[in-house]
Each structure stands twice: as structure tokens, then as C-alpha cells.
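A protein record in our archive is deliberately plain, so that people and models can read it alike. The record that follows is passed on verbatim for readers who wish to inspect the format.
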Amino acid sequence: MRYGTIAGVGDRVSRLVLGSMVFSTEPNALRNARQLLDRFAAAGGTAVDTARIYAQGTSESAFGQWLAGSGRRNDMVVVGKGAQHKAETYEPRLTAADIHADLETSLREMQLDTIDIYILHKDDPGTAVGPIVEALNDEVQAGRIKVFGGSNWSHQRIAEANAYADAHGLQPASRSRATLKRRPGTSRPACPSLHGHHKRADSSRDAIVRSYLKAIPTTRRT
């Protein structure tokens, strides 16, 4: 297993990040999730990607049950996602109240005090970055998240948010995870941009276990 360092999180972040979209509290799915998580942890995996919307919220509960029962909280890096658009209308949900509500629910469902990396699931370019950055910094100060970033945010919006943070003495976003899309005529996914810069990182998705590789600046093997 390869590991990397994320400032504010630590140096034991596995580059192989296990997705949890298929987890749920349905008995068979719960049993499968526990087995998958056990094998992932035994292989040295430490990072698990979760989201408030997966399995209508039950994915977080399934993961939380495993985490509490396994006693591995100190070994794992929990990635949480929230503030997804409304399922029925696809209207944006990116207000401070939306962020706080989703985070509070995720913490409760996963039986956690802190989420290591918190990612806003969708962007709304029509929403000013200031209140978003301030809401996330409130959660950092409260100890409920360590670092934050955006999924499906453009590097321009990340740069805008980080400029606001710098101008107001606030913590900036740490990373952006772009949706992986297939390159035309190939079986390889396109490469996402990271950190709001024009960097590229090789990434891949395992369609069976919903895993993917996240590029982390500093890597090592164990």
C-alpha cells in the first residue's frame, strides 16, 4: 500500500481510497460492507470515502457501525461529502445552514466527533464563496472537520474560495476531486485537477468495489 501526507490530516493516508456507495444497512449489504472494510483495512487501506446521499443516508450508518465495532477509528482517514443538490429538483444546497445540517447528520450516522476530510459534493457557481468558506471554517474551529475541499468544483472556483480565505485570514480548501470520466475511445478515465492548480494526477476507478485512487503530493510505501 502507498501512503501520502495531507497537511492537517497526517502522513498515513492510503492512496487507495475505498468508496462506500454500495454500503447500506440492508442485512446482506451490511454484511458485505463489513467484509470489504475488514479486507481493505487488513491490506493496509486507511482512507474511506463517504457521502450523505449514498444509499439514502444508510451507507454512512453502515460504515459507522463497522468503524465503531472494529475499534479502528484512529487508523482510518474518513472522507465525508455533503451539500449535494436536492434529489427531486436538483436545486443547489450550498448555504451555511445546508452545510452545517448535512455535517451534523453525517457525524451522528457515522458515530464520529470529527470527519478528517470534508468535501462539498456539488458546487453552485451562483453562490458566493465567502459564506461557504466561513461556514467550513466554523466547522474547523468547532473541531468537527479537519480540512475541506470540493467535489466537482472547477479550479477557478477553488482559487476564488482560497483567495477569499487568504484575504480574511481563514483556512483555505485543501483539494478538489473531479468526477472521473472516460476519455473518448479509451477505457482510461480522464485525469482530475487538484488543489485549484493546473496539476494533473493519474486516477482510476474500480467499478466493482467503487474504489478510486486519489493523488496525494507525497507518497511512500509500507
